[in-house]
Amino acid sequence: MIYLDNNATTAIDPAVAAAMAEEYSLGPANASSQHAVGRAAAQRMDDAVQRIGVSLGCDFSLPGGPRLILTSGGTESNNLALAGLGGPHSPLLVSSLEHASVLAFAQRSEKNGRRVFYAPATCDGVVDVDAFTDQLHQASRLADVLPVVSIMSANNETGVIQPIESISSVCRAAGASLHVDATQSFGKVPFDVKSIDADAITVTSHKFHGPAGVGALWLAPGVSLEPQFFGGEQQLTTRPGTEPVALVIGMAIALQLAVDNQSVACQRMSQLRDHLEAQLFDAIPDLLIHGSSATRLPSTTCVSFPGVDRQNMLMALDLAGIACSSGSACSSGSSPPSHVLQAMRAEDWAIRSAIRFSVSRLSTMQEVTQAIELICRVYNRLRSGSIVEN
Questions:
Q1: Which sequence positions are flagged as catalytic?
Q2: How far is the CA of 335 from the CAs of 67, 92, 315, 320, in angstroms?
Q3: What's the confidence (pLDDT) of residue 330?
Q4: 151: which strand partners?
Q5: Are 11 and 3 in contact (CB under 8 A)?
Q6: pLDDT tops 60 at residue 388
């Protein structure tokens, strides 16, 4: 199987797997236990957290400095930020491009009476900063509580990189809290948590060749967070529960490898992505590449194949030995129309036929070249017998 669904999840790096296996071999590891075994586990976990801090460019040991809240992954981190930063009465502003974990939270909050704004996107898949600014000013006038904003750093479906610096400046001027879902950025593009000037940033391990089931929410100095879980004293009661020491160690090593190799990996992924797009476009001139005029992640291409249905294409590609998706992995099981492409005002045929391919730093040119041949073969077979017209 040629794996081209790395925006959904990545293969675990062998060095990460080895480090986790070594940790598991040490036996029980509850970092909250007071005995010697527990204290040793706590020390190993604290060392891993400090290692994460080095990779992020910050020091978690400084009193009054930034904090790292360990979570089960990106979905929990996003929900924790949106629920914990401002509370149920603060206006919430998200973009129409966000991941399902943000949009579903926003929609549920709206049903419960919270005022929610959805910033529109341009046809290139970039958050419309002018419209966002107008909405934020409107939200700021609604209540005594300042708004909470959540914008992703890069889109998981199209790879389009968002204008976070501009959005951050607008938020600072308005006094709003800013959360950034950065799950797709680490290891693919330079990402400096200090220069973003956000209140909270989501990180999740399995997007950069670490283990699934662990993530984090970075908090800026002085930022407080209302807990959403209760029942333990872990992490200063902000997110109670027994910490998965081996997973945290794996995330620390994976993040270090991602950051250390980011420049070379970016160049490599760009070559693979560009080769894939160029060869597909040569073979299928009517192919549409979404967000191609915007700055994108080097790993991601979202393309629409004229005259075919995305679900038929996905199933045929799977049978041919290619793993890809029709959008976010959180919704691709039922393959609903992409809300991202709808927000970009793509034509119906383009939404019906959109497929996402995503490479990683472990992908090879041989895999991509073989995939191109298979994709073209599958497309030509489906198009010749398709009843879906452009």
A1: 330
A2: 37, 28, 11, 19
A3: 57
A4: 180
A5: yes
A6: no
Alpha carbons 133 and 119: distance in angstroms, whole number: 9
pLDDT digit string (tens) for 152-174?
999 999 999 999 999 999 999 99
Please state, as a whole number, how many other Cβ atoms lie within 10 Å of the Cβ of residue 30.
14
Name the residue among 132, 142, 206, 138 with its Cα closest to residue 169: 132
Residues 6+ apart with CB under 8 A from 67: 60, 218, 219, 223, 238
CB 71 within 8 A of CB 203: no
Amino acid at 161: I
Q: In a 10 Å sphere around its CB, with 0-12 CB exposed, 13-18 middle and 19+ buried, how is residue 58 labelled?
A: buried
Token code pair at residue 266: 């970016």
Segment (H or E) for 120: none
pTM of structure: 0.95
Give the pLDDT band of residue 389 (cuts 50, 70, 90): very low
Identify which of 288, 248, 264, 250 has the alpha carbon closest to the alpha carbon of residue 360: 264
What is the distance, to the nearest Å, from the Cα of residue 189 to the centroid of all Cα atoms in its chain? 13
290-295 long-range contacts, Cβ below 8 Å, gap at least 24? 290/125, 290/157, 290/158, 290/341, 290/344, 290/346, 290/350, 290/354, 291/124, 291/125, 291/155, 291/158, 291/159, 291/160, 291/344, 293/124, 294/124, 294/125, 294/126, 294/160, 294/161, 295/160, 295/161
Nearest of 128, 163, 125, 156 to residue 289 by alpha carbon: 125
> 52 is written with which tokens?
């994460």
